[in-house]
Amino acid sequence: MNFKQLEYFVAVAEAKSISKAARKLHVAQPPISRQIAMLEDELKVCLFLRTNKGVELTEAGRSLYQQSQHMFQNFRMMVDSVRDVDAGVRGLLKVGVVYSNTPVVLNYLKAYHKEYPQVELYIRVGAPGDLLDDLNRGDLHVLFLRTPTEGSSDFHEKILGEDPLELVMCPELDPAPDQDSIPIELLKDVPMCLLRSDDLWGYSSHLINECQRKGFTPNTVCQCYDTPMTMQLVQAGFGISYLPRSIVETHPGSNIYSKPLVGLPAKSYPTLLWSSNIYYANCVKRFISMFGYPT
Questions:
Q1: d(CA 25, CA 28)
Q2: HTH lysR-type domain location, by residue (predicted)?
Q3: For residue range 44-84, what is the model confidence (pLDDT) as tens digits?
Q4: Domain 3-68 class?
Q5: How far are the Cα atoms of 18, 26, 65 from residue 30, in angstroms, in the given order?
Q6: pLDDT tens sequence across 139-192
Q7: What 3-state DSSP class applies to 233?
Q8: DSSP 8-class letter at 240
Q9: What's the pTM?
Q10: Which of 102, 173, 211, 224 is in Cβ range 3.0-4.6 Å of 229 for a Cys bridge?
Q11: Rounded to 5, what percent of the chain is helix, strand, coil?
């Protein structure tokens, strides 16, 4: 077994296709197939089941994939750590961010970059589930999510504060333009652009339940998979939404603003996550230490 075989194996496992893995690695298909066959022969196990749609991992394949991921994580951290030696604090800090945390994250990154300007920043904004997968694989060092992940033993968590949930809107759809807060009854006929009811944070479900307790169902004109699209629809005048208050800061100079709902003090919690199972390079440790954790 060698490093190249494991690299090919992991690529195929993630792509679920030899042809897709070949394109990603810029390698012809036959060498990949040959190396995987050699790996299976050496281990005396079947790693993949061939199907009409591609390939799927066997139980043995899943075991090898998980252990390979840990090996690659440790290898990447080893490389970063060696580069730190005698070079000051250098390296690469890979940060995952859910869109609504952008205003929170920028403040920390600005402070970190000022202190360690030689560290390159890699920032990925994406869906929570995808970002958590990347953190598990070691493709991200830290992740800024909303609300803790129910105490998973695989991660350290640091709650970074409270962010109230409020109605986000443009002036033309403000149901109470002369008031600083909005009674929930005034939402009865207002068009709403909400995150889907199955979104990870449950913002929409919380609002809908409260509206129904008051005897009506919100006039939902659009459901969105992600927050950026929701904000675009709000700005375009499709409706108002219900999101963390800080989201307004992602649209500076626009006419978007937020107001609280009367009697509904719901909150969201920006949260930092990082793995508890990985040895991090010095540049990553320095970033985590900004949040009061010894490294």
A1: 9
A2: 1-58
A3: 999 999 888 889 999 998 899 888 887 877 777 677 666 66
A4: mainly alpha
A5: 9, 12, 21
A6: 899 999 987 555 555 788 899 999 999 999 999 999 999 999 999 999 999 999
A7: helix
A8: B
A9: 0.67
A10: 224
A11: 45, 25, 35
Delimiting residues of CATH 3.40.190.10 domain(s) in the chain: 88-161+270-289, 164-266
| Length of the chain counted residue by residue | 295
**Domain span(s) for CATH 1.10.10.10 in the chain:** 3-68
Distance, CA of 280 to CA of 166 (rounded, Å): 37
Dmax over CA atoms of the chain, in Å, equals: 75
Detail the DSSP E strand segments found in the chain.
48-51, 54-57, 91-97, 119-125, 142-146, 155-159, 163-169, 191-195, 219-224, 241-244, 257-259, 267-268, 270-275
Q: Which class is 88-161+270-289 in CATH?
A: alpha beta
Show the tokens assigned to 71. 């090996």
At 68, list the tokens.
Answer: 């390979």
